Amino acid sequence: MLMEFTAEQIAGLLNGDVEGNPEVVVNKLSKIEEGEPQSLSFLANLAYEARLYTTDASIVIVNKDLKLNNPIKDTCTLIRVDDAYSSFTKLLEAYDQSKPVKIGIEKQSYIAESTTVGNDIYVGAFAYISDNAVIGNNVKIYPQTFIGDNVEIGDNTIIFSGVKIYHECVIGKNCILHAGAVIGSDGFGFAPNDNNSYDKIPQIGNVIIEDDVEIGPNNCIDRATMGSTIIKRGVKTDNLVHIAHNVVVGENTVLAGQTGISGSSKIGKNCMTGGQVGITGHVTIGDNVKIAGQSGVSKSIKDNQVLQGSPAFSYNDYMRSYASFKNLPSLVNRINELEKLIK
Amino acid sequence: MLMEFTAEQIAGLLNGDVEGNPEVVVNKLSKIEEGEPQSLSFLANLAYEARLYTTDASIVIVNKDLKLNNPIKDTCTLIRVDDAYSSFTKLLEAYDQSKPVKIGIEKQSYIAESTTVGNDIYVGAFAYISDNAVIGNNVKIYPQTFIGDNVEIGDNTIIFSGVKIYHECVIGKNCILHAGAVIGSDGFGFAPNDNNSYDKIPQIGNVIIEDDVEIGPNNCIDRATMGSTIIKRGVKTDNLVHIAHNVVVGENTVLAGQTGISGSSKIGKNCMTGGQVGITGHVTIGDNVKIAGQSGVSKSIKDNQVLQGSPAFSYNDYMRSYASFKNLPSLVNRINELEKLIK
Amino acid sequence: MLMEFTAEQIAGLLNGDVEGNPEVVVNKLSKIEEGEPQSLSFLANLAYEARLYTTDASIVIVNKDLKLNNPIKDTCTLIRVDDAYSSFTKLLEAYDQSKPVKIGIEKQSYIAESTTVGNDIYVGAFAYISDNAVIGNNVKIYPQTFIGDNVEIGDNTIIFSGVKIYHECVIGKNCILHAGAVIGSDGFGFAPNDNNSYDKIPQIGNVIIEDDVEIGPNNCIDRATMGSTIIKRGVKTDNLVHIAHNVVVGENTVLAGQTGISGSSKIGKNCMTGGQVGITGHVTIGDNVKIAGQSGVSKSIKDNQVLQGSPAFSYNDYMRSYASFKNLPSLVNRINELEKLIK
Question: Domains (ranges, CATH) in chain B?
């Protein structure tokens, strides 16, 4: 919980102006539509302005230039700042950082003697760190995590409970790996043999996750057959994302929930996928590409495209075709009619 | 295993009538098509009546009013009851409850001193219960489970192996969380910044799972940015379901395997999704809505709709359009023909 | 790492001929396009022949009958063999097997006294093996794995970290189960009751995984309601695959990432699904069926079909219809035009 703060104190922190009761006290943060007494909220998007006049929040942070078109409640005090959204985010971060920081090595963990560990790390009970791992400073390894042989983890990275990192993988600095993510499992590589069954192709590569990456819970990122599967700096993945062997995901690309990328495909920088997008193997996606939810990309794509469909093509063209698809039965009727008229 | 029972004993239990050998003995349950000597089965759906005449099950439970249209095998004894299906389910439950009940706290577990625990709980080895958690009576916590700070778990709830529950989340009574489910990981919230990369938006809310909920294995349910992601009473989710931050899933709604729901969407009561359904963010789905497998819902939906497609619309209309879609090449030929005739 | 080998030594191993410097030394394997000094690579597919003339690999394995259409670099030595691909795979396997083998039972594990274990097994710390489990010879059980009551695991099987196997399930010989896979969780079976909610149908069956199966990370394979969910010999599943209760997957069938199969469906032998394929419940898929990525199969399918679409039909027909779908807006214009001309 936040300690208690007055409107005046918060205005001071944010360099803002109080409009209302400077003595009113808050002890938690809320969305404006869920505001209640003693909570602090914000209004940034004017589409939701109506909520300002009905909220029970005790304090609402708003932009300096906001014009009130209705009276606000007596119980509501405004703090006017240059940018309500970023001011509120600053408070969110302060709140988040007020939580106690885990530190120390809990007794029931297992750390191989050959492992090298940095300063100020946390290793929870039942975490397992294998031979020759290298753990940076200030790394937090939660309970029941598995760190394989020769794995490297950069400074300040957080590995939540139950993450499994296979041998040889490399995790950068300032990363967050959420619970249950699997990094470096074998790529899905099999060669058909003469018995109508498959021989396993050994997967001797690894996974490299660069700095500032956040990996969602229960993601699966496979090691390369040879070389590396690479998740570049600043990538963010949502829940249950599947990334196959030898894939490269470019800087600052964002993959929404349940996205799947097949083997050896290269995704550019600053791309975005919607939920449940699938990308086939051995294709190259350019930079700044946006792919609508549930689309399936079956070929290489140039920079700056926006796509939809399975197989995917231009978003606008897809939506036009889909509008006609909805009308197909009436279209068929019109063709029937034309045929009758002509005969 | 069941102990051995005679047809007469089971008929007594179910208040039914024996037709055949009252002394015949069974020791297991089976489906009628997989019936074998000493197994007990049932026939409720008359579409499968033919199986009754060929089954090797020693006993079959049938409805009182069933008319036999063929002779049954000599090895098969019938027990006639009011409702064969519910009688059989009663036996299934009795069988299920005959398994030994786990109880006690295994030595190799970790339970923070500040945790409050109820009576008759089970905590398996390598389970980790963090500070200030509150665990109800008769809760079963399997090995390698992680329970974060301040988590609350209601009476009679079962948490299977490897479940990870982040701090502050609240789990109701009589819930079942299957192996590998992740509850309360950070919502997927990032704000673009001036470096073409993203700043993380702290996720300070939680997840609330109400009573009588069953969560499938390897599900991921994210905590709210602020406030709560809420899974209401009686919800059932299948394998690998993804539920994003600030989602609300209404009472008794059923989500099939690999369904994904994006941030802030509200799903009504008694809805059903097929497998691999996707629902976009910030929409409201009414009560009793049914969504066919692989459909993608991109807008708010009223009560009682049945939907298919990506984007989804009325199931019947989709199926009509899809029938025409299959015929599109011949439709194109007909248009070609018409154009020729006219010119 | 590989020890160092000369071209002459490797040629001897593979029964090949050196063309270039027999003394050149390599110490790692690489793809030809990622070749660097001291690495060994191969060229099997002539579509990539151009890479042979630019690679920095010190040694490249090629077929005996390969004709050089350009000069190769001075730094590159060839080894000619009968089959470059299989020779290279042989080296990959040798490399893979050179890793140290885990053996022994780590102290911080839990093994119930009633468990039977074979010779030369590995049990990592924080692994939990329940009552009456039977573990074969040479089985490797990684840390934080859960093995339920009465589970059987065949010889030489590898269970990676965090796998959860519920009670009564049976795993064959020579299997690999990747991290986080859940085997034998309850099938998704509920019966609607009079309160508009659901009663759980007890799931008293199990999962049987036959020999030579590889299960991908974070897969979920549900136990049967009664009887068994069966994964037959030689099946391979990719990441995040969902297999519901009472499904049977036939021999040597390959399921790509995020495939989902609903309850009671039977899949034939030697089938292949693309990524994110969905198969509805209670259908039968023949042998040698191929299903394109993101397709949804809604009915039973005969042998040797190739399918696409949601619902899926013949791949070729789908692609023809989809080509017309892309042109639908112009088709509509042509119909408008025809109508004008006629009126």
Answer: 5-97 (3.40.1390.10), 104-318 (2.160.10.10)
